[in-house]
Amino acid sequence: MLRIEEARQRLLGGIAPITETERIAVPDALGRILAEDVSAPVDLPPFDNSAMDGYAVNTQDPVWRGAPPFALQVIGTSFAGRPWHGKLTRGAVRIFTGAAIPNGADTVIAQEDAEHTDTHVVFNKTPSPNRHMRPVGDDVKKGSQIFARGDQLRAFELGWAAACGIETLSVFTRPKIGVFATGDELRAPGTALAYGQIFESNRLMLRSVSANLPAHVRDLGILSDDRAQLHAALGRAAQQHDMLITSGGVSVGESDYVRNVVETLGSIEFWRVAIKPGKPFASGRIGNCLFMGLPGNPASAVVTFLLFVAPAIRTLAGGHAPAPIEVDAMLDVAIEPSATRTDFQRGRYSQQRDGLHVAPTGSQGSNRIGSFRDANCLIKLEPGVNVRASGERVSILPFAGLLG
Ligand code: AMP
Ligand code: MG
């Protein structure tokens, strides 16, 4: 049985990222992975401008050589978007935040430090140069690299691109991913259940949990525990997708054919990882299509998706898959972790006065979809310690970090 780190390395190391690219409009690019390095086509800000509402003046103006108060004539106004076009040698120009600094001015005095009369403005102190000014290129220099190939475009990158006037970006095409559920007992909600059958829930959960990943995730339906049907369906789907995800049928039961079928169509790269839940996780490929075989129990399916499939999708999509964020939290109740596998219990963490606290969300059976109720993290417990007492510090993986 592989340890989780080794399984992750083998899985991600074996993935050849998508190479096909497309050029799309920036407003359509949220969540997509950049296929090019991008340099700023302009300086930001594009011109020296004021950081305050106040007065632009010239510190070389002879008026400052006298004694305070200093009375300067107001000779113009510079608004954001409507600059004052003259040249300032003496006097003051009324100026507002974001407005261009007039030619000749070398500082801005905040209006809080000024008194305005009908024609003049009065200051009590000599100004120093370069105050409250945002010089051209201060935020971003024209020609400097702002994004790198492989970056995922979040709200911030889109805003940044817009601020630079960039209209289109080259991104990787989204990998096509198909999701199957397998199991004779599974029926879609809306159908009547015969004795021994259950409603199928993994496809919907897995597709929904992938909603923010840079991929096209398609529901391919439910397959029976039937070798011939599995063989035909997986073989056909592998030709049309970059990755297939199945749930169920990868354990050691007599009707668990999925792994065996993938071996006849392609290969299994590894099977079984020392984690709980999710031990039967299998990874392989059918031709150029990656195969991710998740166990059928809902908690196992989601945990293995978060730990393995989500980073595999990011890597396949041309992006980065850094190790998930792990932080310490104080355990609020005692728990008994697995003795032999890294345990990933569903938990809820919260910010308290003395830091993060966490408690598991009830009973942790891998069949229990209810263990996700209120859960916002996985509590990671290494094997070897029988009981983790209340008050001990444990590692948690917030869902927010796992889902990017
Ligand atoms: P398996 O991995 O096929 O041995 O299934 C393990 C358990 O998970 C069994 O109790 C199945 O009935 C259940 N199960 C498998 N697939 C699903 C699914 N898609 N939705 C809900 N439960 C499932
Ligand atoms: Mg099954």
Concise summary:
With 404 residues, the chain is α/β, with parallel strands linked by helices.
Structure, explained:
This protein is of the alpha/beta class. Helices cover 18% and strands 30% of the residues. Bound molecules: adenosine monophosphate and magnesium ion (MG). The site of adenosine monophosphate (AMP) has 19 residues, from loops. The site of magnesium ion (MG) has 5 residues, from loops.
Going across the biggest sheet, name each strand in turn: 7-4-6-5-9-8
What is the number of strand segments? 26
Low-confidence stretches: none
Bound heterogens, unique: adenosine monophosphate, magnesium ion
Which strand-content bin applies to the residues?
25-35%
Terminal CA distance reads: 28 Å
Level of helix content?
Answer: 10-25%
Judging from the principal axes of the Cα atoms, what is the shape?
Answer: elongated
- Per DSSP, the total helix count is 7
Structural class: alpha/beta
- Biggest beta-sheet profile: 6 strands, mixed
Q: Average pLDDT, to the nearest integer?
A: 97
Q: Compute the gyration radius: what is it?
A: 31 Å
Keyword list:
404 residues; alpha/beta; six-stranded mixed β-sheet; 7 helices; 26 strands; elongated; binds adenosine monophosphate; binds magnesium ion
Blueprint of the fold:
Elements: H1 4-13, E1 21-25, E2 38-39, E3 49-50, E4 54-57, E5 70-78, E6 92-95, E7 107-110, E8 114-116, E9 120-123, E10 133-134, E11 145-147, H2 155-163, E12 168-172, E13 176-182, E14 186-187, E15 198-199, H3 202-209, E16 216-223, H4 227-240, E17 243-247, H5 258-265, E18 267-271, E19 275-276, E20 282-286, E21 289-294, H6 298-316, E22 327-331, E23 342-352, E24 355-360, E25 377-381, E26 393-398, H7 399-402
Parallel strand pairs: 5-6, 13-16, 13-17, 14-15, 17-21, 19-23, 22-24
Antiparallel strand pairs: 1-12, 2-11, 3-10, 4-6, 4-7, 5-9, 8-9, 18-20, 20-21, 22-26, 23-24, 23-25, 25-26
Helix pairs in contact: 1-6, 3-6, 4-5
The structure holds adenosine monophosphate (AMP) and magnesium ion.
